[in-house]
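QA checklist item 7 of 12: single-chain prediction sanity check.
[x] sequence parsed
[x] length recorded as 334
[x] structure emitted
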Amino acid sequence: MLSRSSRRLVVSSPSIIIRRRISTTKVAQFESKNSILDKYKKPEEVESPSQLAADSTLPNIKQDLKTNPRQASSKGPFLSDNSIENDPTYKMSGWKQSIGQQVIKLFQIDMDKSRSGPVAGSVYFGECKRQGLYYPDEPLSDTAKFYYETLKLPQSFNQQFQISILHYWILSVRMRALPFKYGKDYQQKLVDRLFRDLELRMAQELKINSNRIIEGYLKDYHTQLLGSVLTYDEGLVTDDITLASALWRNVFNGNPNVDIRHIEALLVYVRSQLYVLSKMTDREFGFGKFKFVPPNQTVKPITKAQEQELIEKAKQEFATSDLPSQKSVLSLDE
């Protein structure tokens, strides 16, 4: 089993995010350079990533993976068997809630820190996992169709992980804009859950019985994660050519016959997600309000007035959140 310390994602470079100030004493700010979204001068010109990819008429050349990918022979729970996490209708009994609120108030528990576990390690983990998830002989979800049918990516366990890494990185960009002591917890809880899930799925679904083999795969995946995050960060702080190159190497497996229109579609998808995240307040994001925009939907730029309207709506939503467990110091203004 991969040790906890070896799974930790260490980011030594400055934290950077699109059009957001970094919540540290040393302020940095990133303005997207030559962003692919900027080429659409009018909102009506913007196409969804799915439509962009579907516009291509080039013939598909299947990538030679050298070996046939190992496929899942069974299906495990999406999150877990725990009713609190897996049952959306679950509700804690009144007396348990009351005791919990009193404990939080009595010991002055920092709920923003405590909330990082269930939000990043469950809600946002689920968002990352579901995007490229598939099982043999089961219908593909709409998001999985985008990757495996529209973008023509190979259906493999490794490919699922590469898609999860991409979505982890998108979320980590926003997490790094939270106050540092909270942002690092959100990142760590998410990456820990990703690798715990990998470990379970390799044993339960791929039927790998050797702990030594599983540990070797986990180390390889950890290396892939670090390399991917580094290349995506480089693309974020430079230009879309560099980011597209990183997507080609990681998500498209360096396929020499890839359709460039497909890379453009995924690039638009990534930039769209980052744009939506840049318009969310810290409080909304910290409470798990973000969901990835489906690739068949279009993200259009909003005005300053519309952005302010979203902030006011967020303030109204949280105005009645006065229970001890709902307390937060995360900003509602940025």
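[x] summary fact logged: Residues 60 and 268 are 21 Å apart (CA to CA).
[ ] second reviewer sign-off
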